[in-house]
Amino acid sequence: LVRQIVSDPERAELIGFSQAKSVLDSVGVFEDNKMVEGYVTVCAKDENYGESLYDKGMTGYRYILEDDAHETFVFESENALNLSRGDKARIWLLELAQKTYDDGGFRYSVFSGAEEEHVVASEPGTFEPRKVSSLDEIRYQDVFTLVTLENVEIAPLYGAFTNFKESSPSAKATSQTHTIYFDYKGGRVNWMKSFPEYYRFYPTPLIDAQGNSMYMHVSPAVSWAHESYPQGKGSVTGLVVRESLSNFDITSADMAI
Known about the structure:
This protein has 3 helices and 15 strands. It is mainly beta. Strands 1, 2, 3, 4, 5, 6, 7 and 8 form an 8-stranded mixed β-sheet that branches. Strands 9, 10, 13, 14 and 15 form a 5-stranded mixed β-sheet that branches. Strands 11-12 form a two-stranded antiparallel ribbon.
């Protein structure tokens, strides 16, 4: 009976993200009947960030929860979970394990091994990203949070979100080597999935009213990759990241969205 209670997600105690991370750092595998709650901001193989992870050799699916205090909880599963972006979800922590990644010197840990039974509850929710009025407000602790950058503009006057389409135009396309998408003219185009790792994003500089700058990273795999830049000031919503792109002289010390 005690074992049943300990392993019952319906009886799990709700704790905060910081406490969950602290416990996992100390033990490596979560052994307590606890759960966390937040809004799904990254869901499995979402376009751009989620899809780009697979060019780095990650297997499975990645999810990120963010709470009202804008703390984050990153976890992974071998199979897709019944979650959608924007859902308010409770995730059971029992038997989740620590997995560590190193992206060009930026080391971080995630909760790994989630299965459908770890989704205690989920329902459609409404989450408001933190609004940022100046790019210099972004700090390292904001990595993995969803933010809206206000009153920014794209620095280049001309171009597209990504300015290349394939790494080897002469290569013979197969379903294993290419992803098929439609370009802005509606024509069918092959994109090579065999881009070198440092081409998984194309960086475009954003600037704010104070002259601060930050890169916006866009994957060549997204459906809107070759649309033209919008002009003028506006807002950009995205995930704060630290990505190393050596061919663009971008290191993991550089904040980006």
